[in-house]
Amino acid sequence: MISSKEIKELREKLGATQTEFAKALGISFSTVSRWESGQAQPTDTQEEQLDALKQLLENQDIDERKLKKMLGLMGIGGVIATAIIAGFTISTPWGAAMTSLIKKSTHAGKILDLFKKNKKPNKTQE
Q: Which of 21, 44, 70, 71 is the most buried (most CB within 10 A)?
């Protein structure tokens, strides 16, 4: 079970306000506030969504600012799709259905590249 502290840390790592975080997750600001204060817990599905987001943020190649922007644009469904593309397992029926669709896509790797940090090419010595 994800703790209130972990939820707050996840939101802060994204650099999102409670309002921004709530909007991206498709929930109310007050729900995020209650989660962070320990007055309420996410549902199993919400917890799985938060876990997918947490796994993405733990990936060293993922740029948090880009992920925050895409989360704002795509919502949690987009984040879950991205987590699936990155190879994370989402075990809910909805996640399993998305996994099946995404694995059939030939563009999945290109989608994940949208979130990766820009890396400077290595200069070779001549």
A: 21
Number of neighbours of residue 71 by Cβ within 10 angstroms: 23
Within 8 A by CB and 6+ apart from 40, the residues are: 31, 34
Residue ranges per structural domain of the chain: 4-113
Q: How sure is the predictor about 9, in pLDDT bands with cuts at 50, 70 and 90?
A: very high
* 15, two tokens: 């650099």
Q: What angle do CA 83, 98, 48 make, to 5 degrees?
A: 50
- Asked whether the beta carbons of 51 and 83 are under 8 A apart, the reply is no
pLDDT digits (tens, 9 = 90+) for 22-36: 988 889 999 999 999
d(CA 70, CA 115) in angstroms, rounded, equals 8
